[in-house]
Amino acid sequence: MKKIRDKKAYILLSRRRFVKKQKRKKHRKLLIKQSYRDRIIEKRKKAFRKKVDKNKYENISTPSNFSIINNPGPTLSFFKILRDNMIKYNPVYVDMSSINQMTTDALVYFIGVLQQLKTKLKVLRLKGSYPKDKKIKSLMETSGFLNYFETTEDVQFDPNKNTFEIKSGNSVDRLTVKNICQFVMKKFEIQKSKTSMLYAIISEMMNNTKEHAYNSNENDYDNWIIFLRYYPNKKCIDFIFMDTGLGIPKTVHKKKDEKILKAISKIKSIGYSESKIVKSALEGEFRTKTRHKYRGKGLPKIYKCVKIGYLLKFNLFSNKACIVENREEDLSQEMNGTLYFWQLTKESVNAKDIN
């Protein structure tokens, strides 16, 4: 052993030895924890394979009104049951035969949930049935929803092309935004200059999904999902955009009193509202967690488009927050990420530029 006569050198050496000892101790704990986790996962995988071999699937039925916008409670409860079963490595059969009403926001959210689960689970088994309603089945096929699954049936596409198929990505996809603008130009028979604001809005939303995900780890799934549907009779286009991140209430800066109310709300019912926090972020209150002045301007810019009448029937769902046009309320069931819905008409695209 090395002899040290200098007191300062002895203290430094002691500190180094202590730090190394703590690191080794921490590493051993992590190895034990990882080993325990791996054993549990392996045990669940074995049970999963047995169930698959025996064709034992957990049967889960979707609500008859499959829509987050029109029927958030039962629809989000269905997704919670689906997630809980799949995390336990249970093979799942989704019965969609009873659906008689459906909006594509539920399909977009379905894709987001499954993509998140695919990165967490090493094995995944999901089967399902089509809705009996022919119109709803046709919408499911033309939306591009089935492109994210393996299916034995030939998918029938809409020859009229009144839908812009579901697209997803991790960063700003200029080509997709350009194609969306061309879709709008064709349906509304308008000039390119009229879609400049729409181009900016969608690009900002795509950019937000990457820049504002500073609380989450790097993921392998897509950060955003988008879908458009044109209604010839109403002469309008519905837009659905999903940010698959943590959600606005979890990523924005909270005041001290809001943090206290949130902590108390876990124990008893109290006046903590995620919808009010989201609404204040939309209104332009400085809520970015980075505290940089150049951040946190995306949501107010988007909401300004709602105020001037460019984006119609604006809905926003994020965690428990629910903003429906001018009304806000908290949901009983939490959702993952943020879901935007708005409508565009030929008249609304004539709104003045917000810049």
Structure description:
- The strands form 3 sheets. Strands 6-7-8-12-9-10-11 form a 7-stranded antiparallel beta sheet, with helices on both faces. A 3-stranded parallel beta sheet has the order 1-3-5, covered by helices on one side.
- The chain folds into 2 domains: about 120 residues; about 190 residues, 2-Layer Sandwich (Heat Shock Protein 90).
- About 5% of the residues have low confidence.
- It has about 350 residues and is of the alpha/beta class.
- It contains 10 helices and 12 strands.
- Helix content is about 45%, strand content about 15%.
- The protein is globular, with a radius of gyration of 25 Å.
Short key terms for the protein model shown above:
alpha/beta, 7-stranded antiparallel β-sheet, 355 residues, globular, 3-stranded parallel β-sheet, Heat Shock Protein 90
Give me the secondary-structure topology:
Blueprint: H1 7-53, E1 58-61, E2 65-66, H2 72-87, E3 92-95, E4 101-102, H3 104-120, E5 126-128, H4 134-142, E6 163-169, H5 174-188, H6 196-211, E7 224-231, E8 236-243, H7 248-251, H8 256-265, H9 274-283, H10 298-307, E9 312-318, E10 321-324, E11 327-330, E12 338-345
Parallel strand pairs: 1-3, 2-4, 3-5
Antiparallel strand pairs: 6-7, 7-8, 8-12, 9-10, 9-12, 10-11
Helix pairs in contact: 2-3, 5-6, 6-10
